[in-house]
Specification:
Elements (H helix, E strand, L loop, with lengths): L20 H15 L6 E5 L14 E4 L5 H11 L4 E7 H6 L1 H10 L4 E6 L2 E2 L5 E2 L23 H7 L4 E6 L5 H9 L5 E6 L6 H5 L3 H10 L5 E5 L5 H9 L25 E8 L4 H14 L3 E7 L8 E9 L13 E4 L2 H13 L5 E4 L12 E4 L13 H13 L4 H10 L5 H13 L1 H4 L2 E3 L1
Parallel strand pairs: 1-2, 1-3, 3-4, 4-8, 7-8, 10-13, 13-14, 14-15
Antiparallel strand pairs: 5-6, 7-9, 10-12, 11-12, 15-16
């Protein structure tokens, strides 16, 4: 027991005079005081909007999230810390924006209490219509009357699995009791509290506390408890399924130990750019594995379109004798441009490269280069004995060995560390590339 007289701090409300938000928050404070929950173990999660001011008025833990997403944060908090009391305060605007989150929380029966401050419009941003604005009502965006049917928030969550649902107003005598029932309910509870935005909606449509229930009746929105169901709370149900299935921490089954030397004293960036399906990412893996076997730290970032097997494919690999915690390369030390599809993705990088950096490029693209880097043009005829599927692998291996960035032995060993099903083919491609390396880059341009 905390023996608190109030859970409200001394900060005055910042709402408009007459705003119903203060009535709901005062009721919440009275109920929390009655329950005497530990403030540190009580989390008020707020959405964007006028309701988003609410967490700062309570001496509890708090979290303020994005518009329409507060329930996802509340559910995440409850999933990770089921011992906490989690209260989600959200407006009708947030319910519209995050309607799928409401439905998902109801289906899962996550033990969060959601109180909807439903003032039938977007009160913070100027009185625009929301998903709950009644038909024919006037707002800043519906000056001649709203043509849409209002969303029934309460029945939406009730029909989708919420286990305690109530609809009423901020002026109801049993509001405190309903908040307490919702807070102490073991499962997803939602209170759809209709209230007045005196600055916009209520003033424009001449709505009073009494006429809120008239609006409910007009649209067939039942008042009172709409659902009180006994169903296993979602977090407990999920943990029960997990019980007995805990897995041991992940361990590498084939760790790569340092087997080869290197002479790098700083970060070195390698970029491979080619056509989708040409094993460009595999070539990136080859570089990373060879660098790891050489005692270097590595990162890899791949870029390709959503179509996956058409268009470009780009792999960027960093290697360094010191730990690196980022990916991507502005101006690579070695750039491989192997197809027309990839040219547009790396042309800017090529233009930024310095005289001490290198570009390996297909013959058809060499005339487009505007760069200070050293250029080596690929002689495709030298790769006649290499399968088309392995050419990216071969060119990258030969190019890096040519520059001395990685040893031929490390590259050959790395080829065997890739997908075991293709280890022999990968090593064959690398070995063939080494055999023809002298002829592979016969054309040069400084």
């Amino acid at each position: 027991m905390t023996d608190l007289q109030t859970y409200r701090n001394t900060k005055p409300y910042g709402f408009c005079p007459g705003c119903s938000h203060r009535l709901v928050l005062d009721a919440l404070d009275r109920v929390l005081t009655r329950l005497q929950w530990d403030p540190a173990e009580t989390v008020i999660v707020t959405d964007i909007g006028c309701v988003g001011l609410s967490d700062q008025y309570f001496a509890t833990s708090g979290f303020h999230g994005l518009h329409g997403r507060s329930l996802t944060y509340a559910a995440g908090i409850k999933l990770s810390r089921p011992d906490l009391h989690v209260i989600n305060l959200i407006g009708d605007g947030g319910c519209g924006i995050g309607c799928a989150h409401l439905v998902s929380a109801a289906r899962r029966n996550i033990g969060v209490t959601t109180i909807v401050f439903n003032n039938l419009n977007f009160g913070m941003t100027g009185g625009e219509h929301s998903v709950t604005t009644p038909t024919d009502q006037k707002t800043a965006t519906t000056p001649w009357g709203n043509t849409e049917i209002p969303l029934d928030i309460a029945q939406t969550v009730a029909v989708n699995g919420a286990t305690y649902v109530w609809r009423g107003t901020a002026f109801d005598d049993d509001l405190d009791d309903q908040i307490e029932r919702a807070l102490t309910h073991d499962g997803f509870a939602l209170l759809d509290v209709w209230e007045l935005c005196v600055a916009y909606y209520a003033a424009t449509n001449r709505v009073s506390p009494k006429s809120l229930k008239t609006l409910m009746e007009r649209f067939g929105f039942a008042h009172g408890v709409l659902g009180d169901v006994d169903r296993p709370e979602g977090v407990a149900a999920l943990r029960a399924v997990w019980q007995g299935h805990e897995v041991a921490p992940l361990r590498l089954t084939r760790p790569m130990e340092t087997r080869f030397p290197h002479d790098h004293d700083g970060v070195c960036a390698i970029v491979v750019a080619g056509a989708a399906g040409a094993r460009v990412r595999t070539a990136g893996h080859l570089v990373g594995a060879a660098a790891t076997l050489s005692g270097l730290w590595t990162t890899q970032r791949d870029d390709y379109p959503v179509t996956v097997r058409t268009g470009f494919s780009v792999s960027q690999v960093l290697m360094s004798p010191q730990p690196i915690h980022y990916t991507g390369a502005g101006a690579p030390d070695a750039l491989f441009v192997l197809s027309e599809e990839a040219w547009c993705k790396v042309s800017d990088a090529a233009a930024r490269m310095r005289e001490d950096q290198w570009i390996f490029v297909s013959s058809g693209l060499v005339d487009r280069l505007q760069t200070k880097a050293q250029v080596r043009v690929l002689n495709a005829a030298a790769l006649k004995g290499v399968s088309s599927a392995s050419r990216s692998l071969s060119v990258v291996a030969a190019g890096l060995a040519h520059l001395g960035m990685l040893s031929p032995e490390a590259l050959l060993a790395a080829a065997g560390e890739l997908n075991p099903a293709y280890a022999a083919a990968n090593q064959k491609a690398v070995r063939q590339a080494m055999d023809v390396a002298v002829d592979l880059f016969v054309q040069t341009r400084a």
